[in-house]
Amino acid sequence: MESKRVTETRCFKVARVFPTDVNNHNTLFGGRLMSHIDDIASISASKLCRVTAVTASTDSVDFLHPIRPTDSVSLESFVSWTGTRSMEVFVKVIREDLRTGERRIAATSFLTFVGLGEDNKPIPVPRVIPETEEEKKLFETAAHRKEMRRIRREESKKFADYLLTKYPWE
């Protein structure tokens, strides 16, 4: 399987923040931003493997600065690392004050995706080749994030054993 440059998976999305997008604090509703993040990340993942890619986990969404109705929100995503059958996608969220032009990193997110074959089972994915300093830094630090995901997944499975499936009204 041929490797691909990270840039081949890069995607961009820009949106205006409307009154229907904000919460009671007059900032972009976190769920709306998470929807944008998963959407763009899935496109980057599919661009890498050229098959249906599904979210295996949302590893993190770190909200760093509020996004207001006077801002635009720009998302940039790309596959930052690949394993054998999974890929890590990084999403950077930039808010821009449309009155002043000031830009800030508003959020960052890491998601894990798998590509599915015709039988809906995970398939091997191409390796990525980082080129920019940003891509290289994310690639170099991916092993630690992968280990943290593995530990968190094991803990989640153990925790799920304690959870009830019975509805309260039963």
From TrEMBL:
Keywords: Hydrolase. InterPro entries: Cytosol_ACT, HOTDOG_ACOT, HotDog_dom_sf, Thioestr_dom. One of its GO terms (cellular component) is cytosol. It comes from the Bacteria. The keyword Protein biosynthesis does not apply. GO terms for biological process: acyl-CoA metabolic process; fatty acid catabolic process. The keyword Glycoprotein does not apply. Residues 7-119 form the HotDog ACOT-type domain. GO terms for molecular function: long-chain fatty acyl-CoA hydrolase activity. Belongs to the acyl coenzyme A hydrolase family. This is Acyl-CoA thioesterase. It comes from Cohnella xylanilytica. The lineage of its organism: Bacteria, Bacillati, Bacillota, Bacilli, Bacillales.
